[in-house]
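Re-run requested by the PI after the first attempt was lost when the workstation crashed. Everything re-entered from the original request form. Ligand of interest: magnesium ion.
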Amino acid sequence: MIVTVASFKGGVGKTTTALHLAAYLQSDAPTLLVDGDLNRSALQWASKGNLAFQVCDEAQAVKHSRKAEHIVIDTPARPSIEELATLAGGCDLMVVPTSPDALAMGAMLQMVEHLDAQTFKILLTLVPPRPNQSGEDAKRALESEELPLFSASIRRLEVFKKAALEGVPVNQVKGDRMSGIAWECYRQVGDEVLNHGE
Ligand SMILES: Nc1ncnc2c1ncn2[C@@H]1O[C@H](COP(=O)(O)OP(=O)(O)O)[C@@H](O)[C@H]1O
Ligand SMILES: [Mg+2]
């Protein structure tokens, strides 16, 4: 399975999503995470040496991909329309993370306009806790537009920041009671990714 994670806006959880999908897919089969974003945040996450899967930049991707069953690609923000089409054509599924706020949603909607609905799936990330309704509102808006949307979404939880600092996936953060709940969000998304197209 080749999964590309792409977004128009930065800071919407693209790298966090790529990393956790790779961690999930690794439990199914050998997985490679390709850090295609020049800010190299995925490589930085991996630099502590605590990840169970390989992470490399795009220059090394071809070599490392020989050993991988699944490949997840973190891409630079703000792809052009041409880049988007190329990215979408190069994977089995494009995951498009967005936070539920109006700015991020607007940028995301502009981006997916240019994509064939078979090729991508929107993931709501950084969803704030109730009583805030923005997650529910965003879900309803996307459903009414009949856009492809993951049924699971990702809650906004501090433990994701800890995970990045510690260089681990969120399920390996020790002493935080939210780590299991946070992991469960991406586990559900990972299940949906593996079942995509079946
Ligand atoms: N679900 C989440 N809950 C809380 N913080 C998050 C979550 N997802 C990402 N973050 C934090 O938000 C910031 C941006 O996330 P990141 O994955 O780096 O986004 P991008 O790659 O789109 O720029 C980082 O500080 C990250 O730790
Ligand atoms: Mg990033």
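Saved to the shared folder this time. The mean pLDDT is 96.
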